[in-house]
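Researcher: Let's continue the batch. This sequence belongs to YtxH domain-containing protein, and it's 57 residues. Same format as the previous ones, please.
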Amino acid sequence: MFRLVLGAAIGYVLGSRAGRERYEQIKRWSSRAADHPAVQGAAGVVRAKISELIHGR
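Model: Same format as before. Here are the structure tokens for YtxH domain-containing protein:
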């Protein structure tokens, strides 16, 4: 959920400055980046670390 909001916010700001075509390009790029296995793996590690900190394991 967080990455969706972050991607949308970044895409909106950059896209509004560069026009609709650039906005769509940024949106496609951010979607591909967020779905990349390396990014997914890093997100899983971060989630696990946060869970450890919250739950004190």
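Researcher: Any comment?
Model: The CA atoms of residues 48 and 54 lie 10 Å apart.
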